Every structure is written in structure tokens, then in C-alpha cells.
Amino acid sequence: MSTSDTLTLDLGDRSYDIHVGSGLISRAGELIAPVLHQKRVIIISDENAAPNYLAPLSESLKATGVAVSDIVLPAGEQTKSLDHFQDLTDRILDEKIERGTALVALGGGVIGDLTGFAAATLLRGVDFIQVPTTLLSQVDSSVGGKTGINTRHGKNLLGAFYQPRLVLADIDTLDTLPHREVLAGYAEVVKYGLINDPEFFAWLEENGEALCSGDKALRQHAVLVSCRAKADIVATDERETSIRALLNLGHTFGHALEAETGFSDQLLHGEAVAIGIVMAHDLSALMGLCDEDDGRRVKRHFEAVGLYASPARLANVSWKTDALLHHMASDKKVKDGKVTFILTRGIGQAFIASEVVMDDVRRVVDQSIAA
Questions:
Q1: What is the pTM of this model?
Q2: What is the pLDDT of residues 99-127, one digit of tens each?
Q3: Do the beta carbons of residue 274 and residue 309 sit within 8 Å?
Q4: For this structure, is 124 an active site residue?
């Protein structure tokens, strides 16, 4: 049975629909075929998603007369590299694609980011479609057109703003997701409440544990609310010149933590974001911007669902404050030599701060790695 909701990200002639619900992969052909310029696609997937979803997605597309080929890549953040990007684009070009050929990203955020960047650059731009299979990619990376790969200097430092033609977020795919991956995605769900929707955060405090444990109705609602929140922000500020930066709540700290662990499975992106969100609240409290109780409330909620709220909780990582500050200084959001942070005046009151004293940041990092 297929039950879904649809919303539209309004970008004029580049607007696209975001479908959220159950049974969408089995209906993919009827949903995707109308947006294709050529009845030919190449599905890009990874070793996690392909065994479960590549065949049904391919069959659904073929049933509508679409020619399908596929490429399966290794799973993991390390695949978002220049070497894998070159290998992927060479393999796509081996297929003799034309500008009407579309790429379909089937997988989590790594596959979506990598496929989107390939689409943005191949033949100076071909269409791509997002079929996200993780909670994190459904609520965040599949929507909004940020594509990219990592370099040794940091995360997503090569990339492009390039919008998909369609997003299909089939929440049935979350049934096969490891619980750790669900929790990592959940951190990005919480982010939307903390940016500007305190009622949604309160709803998550009541329903978050059941959502993470598998309640489909709660999951569908959370994905829909998250996608709508992101779509509204992106429609206003597609290229992150103003309010879209609010979506980076927790990310300046989080990306530094990820970089220090080598973008490995030691610390997943969403796990790093959860810790980073807590650190952003701690920094806000230290600067007198919000009450310390706000940070404690956020920390309690993350810990209640099973997420770490402090880098000190990670075993076998020797955190060094100077190293983390160095990673922050290399962040792509640095402007005029100053690190930009998303801080808060309270739950649901996030704002962009570019005049942050780095001694305060050092104090928060020191406290966090020692906690």
C-alpha cells in the first residue's frame, strides 16, 4: 500500500516535488518518468542500499519504458572523495550518456551528494533525481541542491548548488536502516525544531523515542515537517547568502569533530551534528545569549533517544582543542577570516553569528572534550 504526501520546493522554473511516504519505490516509474527528458537513467547506489532497493527501483522504471543501467559504489563517507568522483564520472561516461540522460541517486547522503555533483558537472549539467534511503538524507541532504565531495582540507569543499528534478523519500527504507543510522538522521530532524519551531521540538520530546524505534506515522510526519522547513528556507535563500546558513546549526563544531576522526565510521555525520548542536547551545549560554537550561534540555533529549551529547563520550579518540579549532578555521563558512557560528537565544531562536570571540569557543571545546 502506498500512502504519501507531496510538497513543492518553489524555485520558479526549477521547482520540484518532494514526495514523502510509504511504497514510493514501487511507484517510482510513474513518478519519475514524467520529469525525464529522455527515457533513460543511470542509477547510482552503494553496497548498503543496492541489495534492498536497486532491483525494485529498476523494475518500476522499466515498467514505464525507461532504460536503466546502474553503478554500485562502496558505502561510507570515504566514497565522497576526488578519487571516487573521477571513477564515477568515468564509469558514467563509459555508458555514452547524452544531456537528456538522468542520474538517480539511490542511497544516503554520500550517494546523493556525489551523484548530484557528478550531475552538475557531466556534459555541463544533466538532470538527477534523489531517492534517499536514510533518515538523514530524507530530511536534509536530498533537499535543497547542495552537492559536493570532501578533500583533505575539509568536508564538502568541492561542490555546487545544483537542484534535483524530484525527491522520493520512501520511509519504508528506514525499516532496514541500522538503529545507529536512524539516530544519526534524527539529529537533523531535531535541528529544525531548534532553528525556528519550538513546538516541533516539544513534539519530538514527546514522540522522539517512539519515532526512532520505528513508528511509521511519526516518521512520516517528522520527515514531512523537516522537508517543508528546509524547502521554505531554500526557496528564500537558495545559495546560502542569508537565512539558509541557519541550517548549519551544530555543523561548524560537528564538521570539525568529523574531520578529526577522518570522516570515518567512528563518528557519523548526524552524531557529530548532535554533539555540535549541544556545543552551540553551550557557547550561546557562555556568551549570555540563552539560558543554560536550554542547552541542558537539548542535551537531555539527545541522550534520551540514545545519541551522544559530548565528544568525550567517544572512546579511543584523543581530542585536542587546537586541532578542532584548526578544522573550524578551514570551514567553508569562514568569512573575512572569521568563523561563522549558528547560535541561539533560546529553543527555536537560532541566528547567524559572525563576531564570535574564539577564546569563548576554546573554552566550550575544552569543557566538551573533558566532560
A1: 0.94
A2: 999 999 999 999 999 999 999 999 999 99
A3: yes
A4: yes
